[in-house]
Amino acid sequence: MNSAITYPVIPDEREDDLHGLEDIDRAELVIFMAGNQFMAMETLIAAFRKRCPDIGPIYYETLPPKMELRQILAGGAMFQGRLIDAAADVYTSVSIQGVETLVKSGLVDQDACFAYLRNRISLMLFAGNPLAIKTVEDLGRAGLRISQPSLEHEDIAAHTLTMYRQAGGEALARCIMEDKLARGETLLTTVHHRETPERILSGQADAGPVWATEIEHARRNGLPLDSIAFGPERDQRDRVKYYACPLRNGHNPQNGQRFLEFLQSAEAQGIYRRYGFTPILNGV
Predict the structure, then answer these.
(1) Listed residue (230, 60, 246) closest to 159, CA to CA
(2) What mean pLDDT is predicted for residues 106-127?
(3) Residue 82: is its pLDDT beyond 80?
(4) Using alpha carbons only, how large is the chain's radius of gyration in Å?
């Protein structure tokens, strides 16, 4: 291990975001997936394995893209005292900025990247909406506790900030991201917004902006959670794009390319639709 490098740290409790860790040293495909796709990944990987049975062990992560980006740039990350330094063959992000960072670092060819999914923001809250939240502006109420995605880790955070500004200008954005934060009424996620349903169910938070696919996942699991859809004028559906890229320093470029081709297939698109995503082709 190079002691001169400061590796990012994956929190110990996020083992459920590291899949195939036991076989990482002999993995024949390494994928860093934007973590909010976690609910679809088991089905997606099973379908890919059926299509490409010759590919051996697969290691994939479902951490926030910004955390995975730091891992790629550092050449690894620490997890439970162990260096995870498998080179990603594929990286996906919900931000073009993440792609551009890798392009500038010489790790990605931008022409090889493509957009393949859309999503939209919804508000998650406790069943029955006991606080009668109706609009984005209602999130500025004093006393209303928000589980807010962190700008440090999550691509969705920038989209929620845009939503706040569209709904109530800088005043609402400052209220939620600064004033309520200082009062302890805005609770930033420490890794990703999979923490938001846990906070709402435990009574730590009243509501939180999440991807609409998170709402669908909660409903599938029978959790006592409701949602508010803010509609096309606020939910950022026309701004959000998921990007997929092959990494130049991956050890399995051919297998990485096969997975990227699979992501654009009708089969993969159908899987994503079942989980509430909106697949796209040719970047539009």
Answers:
(1) 230
(2) 96
(3) yes
(4) 19
pLDDT digits (tens, 9 = 90+) for 157-204: 999 999 999 999 999 999 999 999 999 999 999 887 789 999 999 999
Per-residue tokens: 255: 């297998």
- Cα 105 from chain centroid? 22
- Give the pLDDT confidence score for residue 153 in this predicted structure: 86
Only one residue has tokens 């200008």, namely 169
In one letter, which amino acid is 54?
A: D
Structure tokens at 115: 């957009």
Report residue 22: phi and psi, to 5°: -65, -20
Q: Which residues pair with 93 in a beta bridge?
A: 243
What is residue 46's three-state secondary structure? Answer: helix
pLDDT of residue 282: 60
Report how far residue 46's alpha carbon sits from residue 44's, in angstroms, rounded to the nearest whole number: 5
SS (H, E, C) 79-114: ECCEEECCCCCEEEECCHHHHHHHHHCCCCCHHHCE
Q: What is the pTM of this model?
A: 0.92
Tokens of 252: 């399995």
Residue 4 banded pLDDT, cuts 50, 70, 90: low
**Strand partners for 227:** 124
Q: What is the DSSP letter of 35?
A: G
